[in-house]
Design brief:
The chain is α+β, with helices and mostly antiparallel strands and 467 residues long. The protein has helices at 3-10, 13-65, 68-82, 159-209, 225-275, 279-311, 323-340, 358-375, 431-441; strands at 87-92, 98-101, 126-131, 138-147, 150-157, 319-322, 344-349, 353-356, 381-389, 392-399, 445-451, 455-463.
């Protein structure tokens, strides 16, 4: 296996997930089966002890009611039912001499020490496990003091119990192996299926990184996390594609709008260089160049103001002011221009306090009123209204101009965009973009409604500060 392939396998999330599932399954199965084994072993030990204690009580009854011959007969009967290799019963004195007992030949290596019973009350047994030298391996031994100078020792082979526990351990081991293999395969399949969506998204990201911004991730109709991630990526890719298209258009517009004043500046300077004969002509040329530079600086500064407002990089200087007063000031500034163009400029204002940055709101309102007066023909009307409704301040600039074409309406707030009806007028297509950016920076919204031949309605909405 190559180094790259080994690295791919080590770095595979699906493989790590499958290994994790296998490890957890192994730990849980080993832990669960270990607990089960210990419970079964403890139960069998207590069952063995309980059986031996029951035999002990029967023997005590026989000892109390019969002589040694009766005790021997009892021992023989119990041993016959269990087998001399599986159990033994031994009644002896303090010197270890056997008074009555079953066949003890198979149990010669089980010793008796009366000192172990010293201090215990009569007929209170002690239990212990002894190791045997033959195939039985171990046995459970009970010892008790029957009366003064009389002791009982009995034992039960644990061979069958040990065989059962051995088989139980074998079955548990195979079960762990099967669970480990099954969980590994299942974890691998589940991980591969879950990661298939991630791989699709990764391939789409690689294509987008390579410049294919139109690529999208195929998304299933389900509502799982992978589908949600795919839809989120598609939305992001759509926004990136739209942003890039807007940037290309913006760069094209900036290049076009900067080329005109720079061309004029160069033309004026070249003409002056070729034709000017005196100081006055050079001064006039310098004045024209300064005017063109001022227009160019205004264009650049306006573009920077829009970008700054949209990015929100400058902290607002907030204050509370009356929106009706702002509208009244804008109307008074542009009323002489409106009267000169034969346009009626009216107001319908209601005192409406708002909180925001006053200079930006003033500039936004001024741009709207300026546009309305500029595009309204002779004899038309511009109406500025301010009102408040449900905690929202509304400033509406309504005109009776030519309106906006439906194809131009979605782009009126785009920088440098100019519709067919406005291309013959001076300007760069930044006024509405600036107004929208300033209003949004103050937590408001600027919208437009228009029909060709019926005029336009621009509405600024800001949170009211009447409280």
């Amino acid at each position: 296996m190559s180094l790259r392939l080994r690295s791919s396998w080590r770095g595979s999330f699906a493989l790590r997930l499958a290994a994790t599932c296998a490890l957890l399954s192994a730990l849980l199965s080993v832990g669960g089966l270990s607990v089960l084994y210990l419970v079964v072993k403890s139960h069998m030990k207590h069952a063995t002890d309980a059986g031996m204690a029951s035999d002990m009580r029967e023997i005590f009854i026989v000892v109390d009611r019969s002589n040694l011959d009766g005790v021997r007969a009892c021992f023989d009967a119990i041993t016959a039912s269990q087998g001399s290799m599986d159990s033994f019963y031994h009644l002896m004195n303090a010197q270890g001499e056997t008074l009555a007992g079953s066949k003890l030949t198979p149990w010669q290596d089980v010793a008796f020490d009366p000192q172990r019973l010293k201090g215990l009350s009569a007929r209170k047994p002690i239990m212990r496990t002894v190791v045997l030298k033959d195939a039985r391996k171990s046995a459970r031994v009970l010892e008790a003091r029957v009366a003064d100078n009389l002791y009982l020792q009995m034992g039960l082979s644990l061979e069958e119990t040990n065989k059962f526990l051995f088989h139980l351990r074998s079955v548990a081991t195979w079960l762990v192996v099967i669970l480990l293999a099954g969980s590994t395969v299942t974890g691998w399949l589940v991980a591969r299926r879950a990661m298939s969506g991630i791989r699709r998204i990764t391939r789409a990201v690689e294509r987008v990184t390579g410049g294919s911004f139109g690529d999208r991730v195929p998304v299933s109709p389900g509502g799982d996390e992978i589908s949600h991630l795919g839809r989120t990526f598609n939305d992001m890719a759509e926004r990136v594609q739209t942003t890039l298209a807007e940037m290309r258009q913006l760069n094209s517009n900036i290049a076009h709008d900067l080329r005109s004043p720079i061309t004029r500046i160069r033309g004026v300077a070249e003409t002056s260089l070729l034709t000017a004969d005196n100081q006055q002509e050079f001064q006039e040329t310098a004045g024209s160049v300064i005017e063109e530079c001022d227009r160019l600086l205004l264009l650049i500064n306006t573009t920077l103001d829009i970008a700054e407002a949209e990015a929100g990089i400058r902290r607002l200087d907030l204050s509370t002011f009356d929106l009706a007063e702002v509208a009244q000031q804008a109307a008074e500034i542009f009323r002489p221009v409106a009267e000169e163009n034969g346009v009626r400029l009216g107001t319908r204002l209601t005192r409406t306090p708002v909180r925001g940055e006053l200079p930006r709101i003033q500039r936004a309102v001024a741009n709207l009123v300026d546009n309305a007066v500029k595009f309204t023909p002779h004899g038309g009307e511009v109406l500025v209204t301010v009102s408040e409704s449900q905690g929202c301040a509304r400033l509406v600039v309504r005109d009776t101009g030519p309106g906006i074409l439906p194809r131009d309406l979605p782009h009126v707030f785009t920088r440098f965009y100019r519709g067919d009806k406005s291309r013959h007028l001076p300007g760069h297509g930044l006024g509405l973009s600036l107004a929208s950016a300033f209003v949004r920076a103050n937590g408001g919204d600027l919208s437009v409604e228009s029909e060709p031949g019926q005029g336009s309605i621009f509405t600024i909405r800001l949170p009211a500060a009447s409280g």
